[in-house]
């Protein structure tokens, strides 16, 4: 049997942090061009029913497992493994159990007859490249990032790697679970074709990945990161945790049937995915900012404040949600304006790229056909600024650094650059990252491109150490099937 290669993207929660935990609200999730890749191959010299998983970007990151399919099904980590990986282990267990349920034990045995070799790598963006750039004596620019080999080793172990917040565990679990389901013939490769309506196979992979991710994290979160890894950019409304309750509390999970819970026909999966993409000629730019924050502790404090001050919280969350929804409809409106007349839209974006947002509405000579486009871009700026103000207010009320002063200063400096539409702190906020939306015209000459202006600002910024990520928005619908030879550097990374 041939190899199976599946990739899943990372995410940025641009709007809807905290609110997304409540099904009454939704969040704007952008999936990234940065992906996790899982490569499943038969081994040639191994024992039957053995699985080796390798993460060549890390030290001590090979895990061997033995699978027993007769009687009680089990996937056991071998005692000689140098470390444990709960995420990987639970993904193997669950995908193999589901395959045995759906395809029968003998079919799974046949696929495992000579053992499996699984390689996992993540794009460099998932892990901070700050130290690497410094060691190569390279400035912190997009150009420098492109000089680092793909899937570069991190010179450390998984437990002390500096993550950038793109959601490594969700992208990893989703690509691993999906690759196993395809390799074990539970779902066909075609399930991951670009379809308007998600296929049954994609929905099944989503449900199983959500379950595994919750189990590995020991809690049922909103699940937007797994949803982005499966479906790509979208407006996300969470599922009720009740759907996973029974399995999460089940100590005998190895004997319990998974299908009734993870089946796409289980009405308990009440999450909603609404289509969403960034408007044309708009680029997202992400930065890894020094000093990470601890999402669970931020989340705990905000939720506690919400309980203690329910009226104020309700008012503020409703107001934030209105702006979040406006942002999504504003982007849809911009896309429509583009489709109506791409040329005029392109000219407007080129012009806006030369001015700070505060100047966008001030030009009395704006050509009449560009007035609506300019106004819509200014509205995107206004909304993102308003969301920031309200998120800061929530931070003050709950005593949590959602947008700490250091980040406020950095973001304000970005907002004063020509062609920057808006920005914020992704997800739960804190000190560790910022996102920006920039005008990204086809040609900006003779002016500098907004991306270049921002790179320069970040490079010279002395109050914080700011390093760009290379990610842009992924326009693909989330998880996809890959060809091993067509992903630059993948084959080489796996043979190290
Ligand atoms: N490249 C990788 N190979 C194997 N496991 C990985 C890899 N990257 C992340 N993981 C798994 O994901 C876990 C990190 O999860 P978590 O702390 O929730 O991170 P995140 O916030 O990025 O989702 C690691 O402990 C490991 O089990
Ligand atoms: C607060 C949240 O709504 C969003 C947190 O988003 P982040 O993008 O900050 O998440 P992590 O990758 O887990 O750090 C909690 C949630 O939805 O799980």
From TrEMBL:
<keyword id="KW-0753">Steroid metabolism</keyword>
<dbReference type="InterPro" id="IPR035102">
    <property type="entry name" value="Phosphomevalonate_kinase"/>
</dbReference>
<protein>
    <recommendedName>
        <fullName>Phosphomevalonate kinase</fullName>
        <ecNumber>2.7.4.2</ecNumber>
    </recommendedName>
</protein>
<keyword id="KW-0418">Kinase</keyword>
<keyword id="KW-0808">Transferase</keyword>
<feature type="domain" description="GHMP kinase N-terminal">
    <location>
        <begin position="162"/>
        <end position="232"/>
    </location>
</feature>
<dbReference type="InterPro" id="IPR014721">
    <property type="entry name" value="Ribsml_uS5_D2-typ_fold_subgr"/>
</dbReference>
<keyword id="KW-0067">ATP-binding</keyword>
<comment type="similarity">
    <text>Belongs to the GHMP kinase family. Mevalonate kinase subfamily.</text>
</comment>
<keyword id="KW-0752">Steroid biosynthesis</keyword>
<keyword id="KW-0443">Lipid metabolism</keyword>
<dbReference type="InterPro" id="IPR006204">
    <property type="entry name" value="GHMP_kinase_N_dom"/>
</dbReference>
<dbReference type="Pfam" id="PF00288">
    <property type="entry name" value="GHMP_kinases_N"/>
</dbReference>
<dbReference type="InterPro" id="IPR016005">
    <property type="entry name" value="Erg8"/>
</dbReference>
<dbReference type="InterPro" id="IPR020568">
    <property type="entry name" value="Ribosomal_Su5_D2-typ_SF"/>
</dbReference>
<keyword id="KW-0547">Nucleotide-binding</keyword>
<keyword id="KW-0444">Lipid biosynthesis</keyword>
<comment type="pathway">
    <text>Isoprenoid biosynthesis; isopentenyl diphosphate biosynthesis via mevalonate pathway; isopentenyl diphosphate from (R)-mevalonate: step 2/3.</text>
</comment>
């Amino acid at each position: 049997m041939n190899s199976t290669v599946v990739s899943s993207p990372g995410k940025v929660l641009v709007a809807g942090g905290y609110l997304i935990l409540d099904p009454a609200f939704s969040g704007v999730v952008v999936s990234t061009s940065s992906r996790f890749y899982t490569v499943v191959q038969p081994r040639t010299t191994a024992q039957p029913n053995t699985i080796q998983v390798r993460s060549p970007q890390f030290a001590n990151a090979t895990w061997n497992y033995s699978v027993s399919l007769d009687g009680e099904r089990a996937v056991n980590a071998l005692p000689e493994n140098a470390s444990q990986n709960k995420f990987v282990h639970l993904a193997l267990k669950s995908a193999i159990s589901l395959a045995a349920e759906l395809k029968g034990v003998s079919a799974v045995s046949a696929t495992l007859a000579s053992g499996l070799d699984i390689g996992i790598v993540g794009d460099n963006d998932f892990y901070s490249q700050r130290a690497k750039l410094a060691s190569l004596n390279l400035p912190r620019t997009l150009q420098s990032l492109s000089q680092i080999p793909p899937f570069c080793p991190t010179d450390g172990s998984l437990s002390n790697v500096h993550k950038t917040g793109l959601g490594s565990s969700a992208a990893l679990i989703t690509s691993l679970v999906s690759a196993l389901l395809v390799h074990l013939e539970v779902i066909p490769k075609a399930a991951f074709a670009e379809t308007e309506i998600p296929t049954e196979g994609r929905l099944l992979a989503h449900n199983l990945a959500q379950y595994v991710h919750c189990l590995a994290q020991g809690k049922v979160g909103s699940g937007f990161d797994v949803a982005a890894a499966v479906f790509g950019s979208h407006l996300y409304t969470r599922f009720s945790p009740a759907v996973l309750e029974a399995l999460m509390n089940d100590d005998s999970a190895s004997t319990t049937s998974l299908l009734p819970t993870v089946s796409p026909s289980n009405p308990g999966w009440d999450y909603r995915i609404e289509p969403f993409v960034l408007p044309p000629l708009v680029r997202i730019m992400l930065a890894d900012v020094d000093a990470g924050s601890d999402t669970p502790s931020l989340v705990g404090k905000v939720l506690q404040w919400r309980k203690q001050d329910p009226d104020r919280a309700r008012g503020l969350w409703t107001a934030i949600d209105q702006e979040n929804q406006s942002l999504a409809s504003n982007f849809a409106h911009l896309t429509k304006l583009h489709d109506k007349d791409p040329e005029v839209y392109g000219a407007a974006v080129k012009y806006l790229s030369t001015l700070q947002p505060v100047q966008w509405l001030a030009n009395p000579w704006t050509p009449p056909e560009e007035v609506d486009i300019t106004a819509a871009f200014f509205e995107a700026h206004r909304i993102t600024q308003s969301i920031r103000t309200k998120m800061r207010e929530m931070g003050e009320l709950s005593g949590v650094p959602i947008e700490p002063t250091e980040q406020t200063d950095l973001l304000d400096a970005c907002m004063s650059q020509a062609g920057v539409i808006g920005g914020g702190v992704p997800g739960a906020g804190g000190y560790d990252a910022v996102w920006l939306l920039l005008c990204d015209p086809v040609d900006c000459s003779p002016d500098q491109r907004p991306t270049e202006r921002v790179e320069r600002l970040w490079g010279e910024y002395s109050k914080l150490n700011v390093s760009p990520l290379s990610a842009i928005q992924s326009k693909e619908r989330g998880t996809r099937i890959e060809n091993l030879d067509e992903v630059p550097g993948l084959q080489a990374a796996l043979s190290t």
